[in-house]
Amino acid sequence: MTRKEKIFMALKSLSEDMTLNDLKEENTGFTTTTISNITGIGRSNVSRELNILVKEGKAIKIIGRPVRFIDRKKLEEMTELDLHRQNIFHSLAELFEKSKEKKNISKDIFQDPFEKIIGSKGSLELPIKQAKAAILYPPKGLHTLITGDTGVGKSTFAQMMYRYAIFSKIIDEKSEFIVFNCSEYAENPQLILSQLFGHAKGAFTGADRDKQGLIEKADGGIILLDEIHRLPPEGQEMLFLLMDKKIYRKLGETETYREADILIIGATTEDINSTLLKTFLRRIPMIIRLPSLSERGLSERLELIENFFKEEVNNVDVPINVYRDVLRALLLYDCQGNIGQLKGDIQLLCARGFLDYKTYNKKQIDVETPFLSEHIYSGLLNYNKNREDILNLLKYEKDYYTFNKTNGEKFIIIDNYSLSTDLYEEIIEKHNNYRKEGYSEGKINEIINDDIEKYFKELLIKCNAEKEIPEKEELFKIISPRVYNAVEISLLLAEQKLKRKFSNKAKIGLAMHISALMERIATGEVIYNDEINKIAINNPEEFKAAKLMREVLEEELEINIPKEEIGFITMFLSAVDLDEKSKKIGVIVLAHGDHTASSIADVANSLLDTDHCQSIDMPLHMKVENILEEAIEKVKNVDEGKGVLLLVDMGSLTAFSEIIFKKTNIMTNSIENVSTPLVIEAVRKSFLPEMTLSKLVEELETINPYIGRSITDDIKNKANISKPKVIFTTCITGKGAAIKIAELLENALPFVREYNLKIKPLDITSKTNIKEILRENKDEEIVAVVGTVNLHIPGVPFISMDELIIGDGIKNIERIIGGVDSHYIKKRVSEQNIFVQMLEKILVFLNPIKAYNYVNKSYIETIGILNIDNSEQLKIRYIFHVSCMIERLLQKESLPYKDIDNLIKSKKLMYEGIKNSLVNIEEAFGIKVPDTEIAYIIELLDND
Predict the structure, then answer these.
(1) CA 536, CA 594: separation in Å to the nearest integer?
(2) What share of the chain in percent tops pLDDT 90?
(3) Domain check: are 134 and 16 in the same one?
(4) What is the rounded CA–CA span in Å between residue 678 and residue 698?
(5) Are residue 238 and residue 327 in the same domain, yes or no?
(6) Nearest CA-CA partner of 196 in 221, 175, 225
(7) Contact (CB, 8 A) for 304 and 161
(8) Cα of 75 vs its chain's centroid, Å
(9) Distances from the Cα of 46 to the Cαs of 39, 41, 417, in angstroms?
(10) Among the residues of 168-218, which ranges form H helices?
(11) In this structure, how many other beta carbons lie within 10 angstroms of the beta carbon of residue 374?
(12) Domain boundary among 257, 291, 325
């Protein structure tokens, strides 16, 4: 019996003895302490499981001091009341009042449930219109997919669609709304199908009786398939018949079909095109995207904040004063977890205020700026930029805003981020206990604040990595779930053939390899070493298994895998999971910053289930000599005879490998521009018995090309520079693009800080006077102008974008700054790779490969239509400019252009040609390129 089952049995047993007379008592119900004493389970665990039972509809929760619980079924039997899926009440009086309202017919059917939602006339207007259209479409609605980031409220929105279906009389009010989280059973496809469709007796081992599935239970209603991207392909295929013909079979049934009329709603945070079968998507005609918090206006955000504070007032029954700067910070901070995180952050603030309220016997809870976490407090830094909007929004500013108990809250579309109301009860209990033990108020506050922080972090972990799969959720940020599942299936086959088990580390390693292989196949860069085939010949059993695995992977991933890949898989099967005592290449990450290197190493070790990757953090105040000594000692400790690889970020660290070799005679090598994927790949390959240090470096460098290397000569005697050096960046489209070029330079020039170098983007669209620029920077040495516009400053070299990307631009800047020869080595890489690398540095959220493919095609069409000579310089400028333009337009931003009509009139043919060449880009990215943006492209092409 599970812990939850044991607690539920105790609650049912206690509730069984209740009578109607008991319900007249205000303290009716059973506390967590009572159930904890009966079951012997800790009170906090009892509280957690009871709240899950409430969410599942098995228990009723009555909020008070203390919180009490009753078995739902017993309560409904006793009172003959239909609670209509409401599980939480503030009192028994409220329970009876609401139950009477819903005994015969739900009050919901008299009111459009979408009307009270915050944002119904704003950011949610389109999603709500889509939802209503999906519900009302004859005869019984359209299957729907709801997409959006974590925390935007997908599951609650689906529930509102269900309520609207009842309100519209599309479905009966007694129809079920079933929620099924696909991730709970993602590791067991057979179980997921049994849960959905049910099974016949004898369908599989352990199926000793017929079982009803959720499809049967939801007949006539709606089923929400949450995290639908975790539904295996066979599960998607089994839904085809249900969606097409409203029939299905239980697992194990072969002769008869069952009927079910169900509306299916799916919810996912993932890219639906890469995680769901295309045949499945074709059966879901309505796709609704819910906006993130950043896409919703400040007025909506204020409404959300006010309602969250009102909810907390109702939880604690105490007025809450929120100080002015707290409200400003909540309005302006970067809330990446969307509405869910906003609610969680407000609950944490209220919990801290509640502790203060109890400590000092206040009449109200005060939420002040000292309670703000750093990430929320940073919102105040944005106040000046948004001052006018905030003033207009708040009308007039007071020192604090008071929230009192109310029943008039609006409904909020939000995912499950609720902080348990028992937290307040726990704060009171701990506060009283510590006070009895003689702790000072300051010490009590410190202890309980730590508890609040831990509680909140656990909550966020639960909400962000739902249902016991946090490791996979983190992994799926790097590897596609589709690839991982395909590899898992193929390795199961290999286990049967080879009669051996493969570790989780082996699955992850092979999945990462296949993921990288798919990218190489897409770019035509698949290269194999002849030694792989020799290994295959010497391992006949692994070779047979590898052939079968290739077939499975091809079928599951719908790709053609070169036959030479069989050799690599053979090598993988023969080498992976060997005795841990076999010698490995040492791997050490070195990076500037207090925690940069250790954080990257922790991720690699965690994902690969090892502690092999070592790290050295280099705080900016630390001397290079001290870090070098630490690196020498660490190399001595980790070397197993095969050498040590140093993965470094920038600056003087790049020279360490050569110095360490001279001092220790241990083979060391280094690779710059360290990144988390690079470290993971390095650690994975360092375990392979056949791997050598030089071969590892060669293989990693082919997947980690970059623009340039830093100056490493004479670490201890670097130039003593007092006068700041300045590089100006320019672009024809203005400062925004110039900032992108500046960011590109900062990534390519890791010695910026060491050489007192400043990179300044300029806005030249306003025809700024060059003399004015020079006057403003008279105390600084201007060493170069980089970008697409030459300012013609006497004595200052101009480095164009084409020289920067495919020429010696970085090398020349290194020479200008340091006055020494550079160690920059340009590798032979494909043109596409060069551009993709460039775009990776300058694009914020656009896929660089997709951007390059479409923009490059547009460029070829443009120069063909306009009969313009192709040149590297022109191509670089065009791809850089148009890619940045796409990002601008996706963010609903575009550049202004004066006298646009005259330009179009004078360049009519060029205008038409460019407009035609941009059609594919508009369709691919769902944008409309305005004439003002086309004007800049005309200038770019006309000025060449």
Answers:
(1) 45
(2) 10
(3) no
(4) 13
(5) no
(6) 225
(7) no
(8) 42
(9) 9, 6, 19
(10) 189-197, 214-217
(11) 7
(12) 291
Which has the closest alpha carbon to 752: 650, 840, 619?
650
Q: Are residues 590 and 562 in the same domain?
A: no
Locus of tokens 């004007």: 935
Nearest to 484 by CA among 757, 695, 187, 747: 187
The length of the chain in residues reads 944
8 Å CB contact between 456 and 419: yes
Structure tokens at 582: 């076999």
49 and 59 Cβ atoms separated by less than 8 Å: no
| pLDDT at position 107 over 60 | no
* pLDDT exceeds 90 at position 73: no
Q: Report the CATH number that the domain containing residue 271 is assigned in CATH.
A: 3.40.50.300
Whether the link from the prior residue into 66 is cis, omega within 30° of 0, is yes
- Are 666 and 740 in a shared domain? no
Contacts within 8 Å (CB) and 24+ apart, 484-493: 484/508, 484/511, 485/232, 485/556, 486/514, 486/552, 486/553, 486/556, 486/557, 487/511, 487/514, 487/553, 489/552, 489/556, 490/548, 490/549, 490/552, 490/553, 490/556, 491/549, 493/545, 493/548, 493/549, 493/552
The phi-psi region of residue 86 (left if phi > 0; otherwise alpha if psi is between -120 and 50; otherwise beta) is beta
**Angle between helical axes of 504-523 and 540-557 (0-180°, round to 10):** 60
286/164 same-domain check: yes
- Give the contacts of 626 (CB within 8 A, at least 6 positions apart): none
- Encoded tokens for 490: 């193929």
Task: Give Cα 434 distance to the centre of its chain.
Answer: 40
Condensed to tens digits (0 to 9), the pLDDT of residues 688-739 reads 766 788 888 887 876 543 323 333 333 333 334 456 788 888 876 666 667 7
pLDDT tens for each residue of 347-406: 888 888 887 787 778 889 999 887 887 778 878 877 777 877 887 787 656 677 888 876
Q: What is the CATH number of the domain that holds 777?
A: 3.40.50
Instruction: From 45, 183, 150, 46, select the one nearest 463 (Cα to Cα).
Output: 150
159 with 244, same domain? yes
Instruction: Scan for tokens 């007379």, then name that residue.
Output: 21
Domain-embedded: residue 203: yes
| Domain that residue 499 falls in | 475-575
CA dihedral over 301, 302, 307, 308, signed as positive or negative = positive
Residue 166 one-letter amino acid: I
891 token code pair: 């963010």
Say if 825 falls within a structural domain: no
Read off the CATH number of the domain in which 684 is found.
3.40.50.510
* Residue 836 and residue 926 in one domain: yes
Q: What is the pLDDT of residues 897-941, one digit of tens each?
A: 888 888 888 989 899 999 989 998 988 887 889 999 898 898 888
Spatial separation of the C-alpha atoms in residues 306 and 401, rounded to whole Å: 10
In a domain, 581, yes or no: no
Give the count of domains, the chain: 7
Closest alpha carbon to 236 in 275, 187, 179 = 275
Q: Phi, psi at residue 456, to the nearest 5°?
A: -65, -40
d(CA 687, CA 709): 28
The whole-angstrom separation of Cα 194 and Cα 178 is: 15
Between strands 59-62 and 88-89, the pairing is parallel
CA distance 180 to 223: 7
Within a domain: residue 886? yes
Do 500 and 399 share a structural domain? no
Integer Cα distance of 870 and 859 in angstroms? 9
Query: What are the strands of the beta sheet with 68-71, ordered from one edge?
Result: 68-71, 59-62, 88-89
Number of H helices, E strands in the chain: 41, 21
CATH number at residue 922: 1.10.1790
Among 291, 317, 335, residue at a domain's last position: 291
Can you give the pTM of this predicted structure?
A: 0.43
